[in-house]
Amino acid sequence: MQKFLFIFPWLILLPFLPFSPVKAHSPSPDTVYITFEEFAAIAKEYSANLDARRKNVEMAENRIRQAHANRLLPDLRLTTAHGLVPGVKSRDPNITPGQYYLDPNLENDWEDWGIFTQAEISGLQPIYTWGAIGNLVNAARKGAEAARYELDSQKESFTLQLFELYQSALLIADLERLTNEALRQLNEVERELERLRDEGDPSIEEKDVFEFYILKAEFEAEVAEMELTRDFIRRSWGLVLASGPDRVYLPSERFFDPVAVTVQDFGFYENNALFNRPELRGLRAAGEAANYGLQASRAQYFPSMFLGLSAGFGYTPNRPRQNNPFIRNNTNFLSARLGVGFQQNLNFWQTSNRVERSRIQKRQLDDFHDAAKDGILLELSDRYREARISESRRESRIKALEISSEWVRTEQIDIDIGFGDVRNLLDAVKKKMELELEISQLTFNLNLNMARLYRAAGLPLGELTRANGSAQRD
Q1: What is the band of 180 on the pLDDT scale with cuts at 50, 70, 90?
Q2: Which of the ends of the chain has fewer CB neighbours closer than 10 A, N or C?
Q3: Contact 278, 458 (CB under 8 A)
């Protein structure tokens, strides 16, 4: 009999899982049935990897605010100084305190100390920068856009892995149903076999009996393996959903059905991939950001016009302010300046290197975009092929199952009226069991391959699940 041991590639979900201590098993956990949308929403909420990606978006948005801050007084400084200084004294009685600068013999008064306070504020306001600031703002905006597309790409990849895990739970539930039905049929065959054996039916040989019990033992072993896989999937659900021992989540779907969409023409998926894949859109945004950065670097070749302003004061109570506008007492003064100026980086070799680096980054991102486009189209072609094959295989097995079911009914009727052969019934039941299990696996493969095709085409997986939900309600 065909074995139904499955390898679940969604084990790569482990980096996305929240890690929490395992608690003791609760004797009566609550069972909650959830749809895939609810399953994905809870898992994304607890995903540490997505949280880290969201921080990248927040940092990119912070760079936008930093770039905007360059528009208004990007260089504004305040400097203060404080200390103790001695006073001054003049021995000339004809010189007033406001004219102490005229006394060449002015002395420090070491018996008179005062607290010195000084503050100076200066700032530069850009007036015209040849588009440097505007290009920096646009570059930051496009960088944030690229970060958001990167987050979208991670979300879609994570959603695909969650879809795999959700479908695995549906597959295991369907296999449990099929194995229970298969065990029931095997028990019926066993009773019929024992009855014919007890009646001494010459058509029953010991070889047939041994073959049957070997078949049943192998099947029971596979059922035990399936139960272990089921427990593993449930534990994986618990990790993804960060659920405690008092709550168990299970799929809300009653039946394991194929997705309610069919494979369309390749051109449909190709057009969607080229316009909607977040990786390509992110690289296009990053390329535009690099182009804006290149324009900002080129602006450094030209002088920038600034409005400069500065103001300051100093106060020390034991040092008089001087009345001459050409004389400044640094311990007691008040001043302000406002004017227009130019700023130019004269290290043109350095500016040239910056421009060249920006130009290389732009070409590099263009190359990345072209390479990603080729890779996505190759991936899409492979996913399209897999989806087509899965769809065709499942349809052929469905037809074979219909024939096998008719075969079982025919053999069972022949047995009931006394003309049948129990070996033929056993062969029919065995084939029907194998086909049912194979169809269940092919349904899983079809759903997964369709989800991978949608991911490769940049289509939201929600369209698959919504279509399935509508079909089940109908």
Answers
A1: confident
A2: C
A3: yes
CATH number attached to the domain at 9-19+37-69+129-302+344-473: 1.20.1600.10
Confidence (pTM): 0.79
Q: Tell me the C-alpha distance between 457 and 379, whole Å.
A: 9
Mean pLDDT of the 181-186 span: 82
Residues near 29 by beta carbon (within 8 Å), at least 6 away in sequence? 245, 246, 247, 248
**Mean pLDDT rounded to a whole number for the chain:** 86
Mean pLDDT on 77-103: 91
- For the segment 5-27, the average pLDDT, to the nearest whole number, is 39
**In 26-74, at which residue ranges do the beta strands (DSSP E only) sit?**
30-34
Q: For the CA atoms of the chain, what is the radius of gyration?
A: 40
Read off the pLDDT of each residue in 363-386 and give the average, rounded to a whole number. Answer: 96
Dihedral angle sign, alpha carbons of residues 87, 90, 94, 98: negative
Task: List CB contacts of 466: < 8 A, sequence separation 6 or more.
Answer: none
3-state secondary structure of 342: strand
Q: Poorest-confidence range of 26-30, 113-117, 414-418?
A: 26-30
**Helix pair 36-45, 132-198: axis angle to 10 deg:** 130
Delimit the domains of the chain by residue range. 9-19+37-69+129-302+344-473
Which amino acid appears at position 220 of this protein?
A: E
Task: Compute φ and ψ for 305, nearest 5 degrees.
Answer: -95, 130
Assigned token pair, 97: 């305190």
Give the chain's largest Cα–Cα span.
Answer: 149
CB atoms within 10 A of CB 83: 11
C-alpha distances (whole Å) from 162 to each of 32, 79, 127, 194, 216 are: 17, 57, 53, 47, 35
Query: How many residues are given for the chain?
Result: 474
pLDDT per position as a tens digit, 167-176: 999 999 998 8
The pLDDT confidence band at residue 131, using thresholds 50, 70 and 90, is very high
- Coil, strand, or helix at residue 114? strand
